[in-house]
Write a structure and sequence with these properties.
The chain is α+β, with helices and mostly antiparallel strands. The chain folds into 3 domains: 6-40 and 139-231, Distorted Sandwich (Calcium-transporting ATPase, cytoplasmic transduction domain A), CATH 2.70.150.10; 50-115 and 236-326, Up-down Bundle (Calcium-transporting ATPase, transmembrane domain); 347-452, 3-Layer(aba) Sandwich (Calcium-transporting ATPase, cytoplasmic domain N). It has helices at residues 11-17, 27-37, 50-56, 61-80, 85-118, 170-173, 222-232, 239-269, 274-287, 293-310, 320-326, 334-338, 381-392, 411-422, 427-432; strands at 122-127, 130-135, 144-148, 156-161, 166-168, 179-180, 198-199, 204-207, 209-216, 347-350, 353-357, 368-370, 373-374, 397-401, 404-408, 435-439, 449-452. A hairpin with a 2-residue loop joins strand 10 (347-350) and strand 11. Helix 5 (85-118) runs parallel beside helix 10 (293-310) and helix 13 crosses helix 14. The radius of gyration is 32 Å and the shape is elongated. The chain starts with 10 loop residues before the first helix and ends with a strand.
C-alpha cells in the first residue's frame, strides 16, 4: 500500500484509497490483508532462550580465565598425585556464579513477558456490516474501528465520526492535556501533535466517541517508527562489564607474561628441570587469578537487583544495576513517566475561606479541613454547590479496576469528579439531577455548559 498523508485527505478519498467503506471490509478481505500486511503488532527482537541466558554467564573474560585455571589446577593435582581441591573450588565458584546470574536474568525476562501479556487488547470493528470484537493484532488497513471513552487506540486511523472526541496523546507527544479532535482535512506538513483528524496507536480516548478507518498498522504506525528507531540503536555493554572485561584481559596478559618469564629464568638461568619449572609456572598463573571476584560481583549485583525489584523496577541484566550509578544525565518525558498524569484537587478557596483536601491520585478518600479542623462540605451551602457543579458539569467517570481507582475521561474533569466523590457525591446525584442539555467546550466560549433538571 502506498504511503499517503492521510490527514491531508478528505474522508471519502481515504476510504477509496483503502478500498473500504463505512460498513467495513469483509472477513475474507481482512484475512487477505492480514497475510499481506502482517499482524498489527510491534516487531520484537529475537527472544532469548533460557539456554542462551545460561550460556551467556560464561562469556566473561574473567570466567573463561577461571575455567582455564581449573583445567591447569586439575593437571597439577594429577601430576603431583594430590586431591583436586583447588579445581573443585574454582568450578564451584564458576557454576554458582552462572546459576545466580541465570536465575536473576531469567526471572526478569519472565516478568517482562508477563507484563506484555497483560496489555493484550481487543477492539470493536465493523466487518461485513456487523460489529465484532477482535484481537488488536488482527487489525488491517481499511478496518472500521469503534472507539469510546476509555478505549486505547489500537492502530493509526483517520477519523470518520468524532462527536466531542478527546484523546490523551501524552504517551506519543508528551502533551499533558487531552486533544480535541475534528474531521476536516489538514495541511500536509502539520506535525503529529497537530493532526486533529487522526488517532494514533497507544493513545487513549478520554471523552466522546469515534468511528475511524485504520490507515497504518504494526511497525508502520507512528509508535512503530519510534520502536524501530529504538531497536536500531546499538546497545553498549554496561560500564561495569566493560571495566571487568578490560581487567580480565589485563590479568590474563600479565599472568601469561609472568608465567613465561618465570619459566625462562628458572629453566635457562637457574637450570631447573623442565617439568619442575613448567609446574611452577602453571601454579603461579593459577594463583594470580582472583577466583572469588566474579562470585562477589554477581552476589553484589544480585542484591542490587533484589532491591530494585522491591521498588517495582525490573532489571533484565545484572550489570545494568551498576549502570544506574554511573548515569550523569537522564532524559525523560514527564507526563505519565515521572508523573502519573493524575490531577487532584488539593484546595478550595471561596470568599476569605480556604479548605484543604487530603488524599492523592484518584482514590475517593480524603478529609476536608479548614485551618486544621475537619469540616463537612454538605453543611456549607457554598462549598456544596461548588462541588455539585463540578461533579455534574462533567463527562469523566470514576471506577475501581483491580483494586486501583481510574478515571475515564479528561484528567481535570476527573479531579473534580474525585473531589465530589470525597464529599459523598455519586451516581445518585446524577439521577437526581439528570442532564437535559449541553453546550460542549469550544475555543470561542472556553467553557462547557450543561443543563440539569432537578
Amino acid at each position: 500500500m502506498e504511503k499517503k498523508d492521510w490527514h491531508a485527505e478528505d474522508i471519502e478519498t481515504v476510504l477509496e484509497s483503502l478500498s473500504s467503506n463505512r460498513s467495513g471490509i469483509s472477513g475474507e478481505e481482512a484475512k487477505e490483508r492480514l497475510e499481506r500486511y502482517g499482524p498489527n503488532e510491534l516487531r520484537e527482537e529475537k527472544k532469548i532462550t533460557p539456554l542462551e541466558i545460561f550460556l551467556s554467564q560464561f562469556k566473561s573474560v574473567l570466567v573463561l580465565i577461571l575455567m582455564i585455571s581449573a583445567v591447569f589446577s586439575a593437571y597439577i593435582a594429577i601430576q603431583k598425585g594430590e586431591a583436586m581441591t583447588d579445581t573443585y573450588v574454582i568450578l564451584f565458584i564458576v557454576i554458582m556464579n552462572a546459576i545466580l546470574g541465570f536465575v536473576q536474568e531469567y526471572r526478569a525476562e519472565q516478568a517482562v513477558e508477563a507484563l506484555k501479556k497483560m496489555v493484550s487488547l481487543h477492539v470493536l470493528v465493523l466487518r461485513d456490516g456487523k460489529e465484532q470484537s477482535i484481537d488488536s493484532k488482527d487489525l488491517v488497513p481499511g478496518d472500521i474501528i469503534l472507539l469510546e471513552a476509555g478505549s486505547r487506540v489500537p492502530a493509526d486511523s483517520r477519523l470518520i465520526e468524532a462527536p466531542n472526541l478527546q484523546v490523551d496523546e501524552a504517551a506519543l507527544t508528551g502533551e499533558s492535556t487531552p486533544v480535541t479532535k475534528r474531521l476536516d482535512a489538514l495541511e500536509k506538513d502539520v506535525g503529529i501533535g497537530d493532526r486533529k483528524n487522526m488517532v494514533f496507536m497507544g493513545t487513549v480516548v478520554t471523552g466522546g466517541r469515534a468511528v475511524a478507518v485504520v490507515t497504518e498498522t504494526g511497525m508502520s504506525t507512528e509508535f512503530g517508527k519510534i520502536a524501530g528507531m529504538v531497536q536500531a540503536v546499538e546497545v553498549e555493554a554496561p560500564p561495569l562489564k566493560q571495566k571487568m572485561e578490560k581487567m580480565g584481559r589485563q590479568l590474563g596478559a600479565i599472568s601469561v607474561i609472568l608465567t613465561i618469564w618465570v619459566f625462562l629464568i628458572g629453566f635457562f638461568i637457574h637450570k631447573h628441570e623442565l617439568e619442575t619449572m613448567f609446574m611452577t609456572a602453571i601454579s603461579l598463573a593459577v594463583s594470580a587469578i582472583p577466583e572469588g571476584l566474579p562470585a562477589v560481583l554477581t552476589i553484589t549485583l544480585a542484591l542490587g537487583v533484589s532491591r530494585m525489584a522491591k521498588q517495582k523496577a525490573i532489571v533484565r541484566k545484572l550489570a545494568s544495576v551498576e549502570t544506574l550509578g554511573s548515569t550523569t544525565v537522564i532524559c525523560s518525558d514527564k507526563t505519565g513517566t515521572l508523573t502519573r498524569n493524575e490531577m487532584t484537587v488539593r484546595q478550595i478557596t471561596y470568599g476569605d475561606s480556604v479548605i484543604d483536601i487530603s488524599g492523592s491520585g484518584y482514590a475517593p478518600t480524603g478529609e476536608f479541613t479548614m485551618y486544621g479542623e475537619p469540616v463537612t462540605p454538605q453543611e456549607n451551602s457554598d462549598v456544596d454547590l461548588l462541588l455539585r457543579i463540578g461533579f455534574l458539569n462533567n463527562d469523566a467517570h470514576l471506577q475501581e479496576s483491580e483494586g486501583n481507582w481510574v478515571v475515564l475521561g479528561d484528567p481535570t474533569e476527573g479531579a473534580l469528579t474525585v473531589v465530589g466523590a470525597k464529599a459523598g457525591m455519586g451516581e445518585e446525584l446524577k439521577r437526581d439531577y439528570p442532564r437535559v442539555g449541553e453546550f460542549p467546550f469550544d475555543s470561542t466560549r472556553k467553557m462547557m455548559t450543561t443543563i440539569h433538571d432537578g
